[in-house]
Amino acid sequence: MITDPKQTLIVVTGPTAVGKTSLALHLAQSLKTEILSADSRQFYREMRIGTARPGDDELQKVPHHFIGQISIHGEYNVSRFESDALNLLDQLFKEHRAVIMTGGSGLYINAVCHGIDDFPDPDDNLREELKSLYAREGIESFRSKLRLLDPLYYGQVDIANPKRLLRALEVCISTGRPFSELRKNEPKSRDFEIIKIGLTRDKEELNRRINQRVDRMMEEGLLAEVEQLLPFKHLNALNTVGYKEFFPYFSGEIPLDMAITNIKTHSRRYAKRQMTWFRKDKNIIWFHPDQESEILNFVRQLSS
Asked: Is residue 3 part of a domain?
C-alpha cells in the first residue's frame, strides 16, 4: 500500500465544458506526472466525440488512464472503478509524488477519495426483471417503486437518473432493507493526501462554451458517431447527453436542429446539477480556469 504521506492526489473537477482537460494537462506537465480520468462517459472506447475525450495530441503529451478502456458492451461500475483506480495509484505513486485525477463524475471522484459503501452484488434475474419493467413503463415505474420502498433516499437521489434508481431498487428488493439504511457514508482512510481543485465560470460564459463545444462536436463528426452506435441505443452507456438526443432524429420524430438544441439544453442542465453536487464538498478550493499559475503555486505549496 501507499505509505509516503507526501504522496498527493490532485483532483481537478467542475462542470462540463469548464476547462478541466486543459488545466489537468498544464498541471501534469508542470509536475511531470500522469492523469486519471474520472469521467465515467469517457471510459467507453466507442464514444469519442460526444464525450469530449481528450484528443490524440493531448493524450500524447501526458500519459492518461481510464480513457476508452472498456466497451459499451461491458459491465463497469463505480465500485470497480474505485478498486482499479486505487490499484493504479499504488503503482503510480512509486514513480510520482503527485498524480492528477480529473473529471466531472462526482460519484466516481468520491469513490476514490472517500470510498463507497459495500452493497451486495446485483442479482442477474432481478436486474433483468427491473430493466424489463423500465422498458415497458419507463422511469416513472422506478420512481414509484423507490418512493414506496425507500422514501428517504427517494428525496435525495437524482430521480432523472435511471441507473441510480435501478441500483437502489436492486438493493432494497434483494436485502429487504431500505437503500438509505445501508448507506453508511463513512469515509474510508486513504494513504495519500488529497487536494481538490474546482473550476468555475460565470453562467453566461459556461453556457457559451457548452454551446460552442456542441457545435464543434458536430463539425468533428458526432452525427456519424451516433449513427454507428444506433444498434446499441438500448445500452446504458448510450443513455447519456450527446447521444440519446439524436435517437428521435434518426427515427424521424424531430429535425436535426432540434436534436442539437436539445443537446445544448441538456448539457447546460447537467452542468447545473454537477455544480449542485460539487458545492456540497467544502474541501474543494475554487478557481477560474484562467488562474493556471495561481493554481500551480497553490498545489505546489500544499504538496511540498
From this structure: no
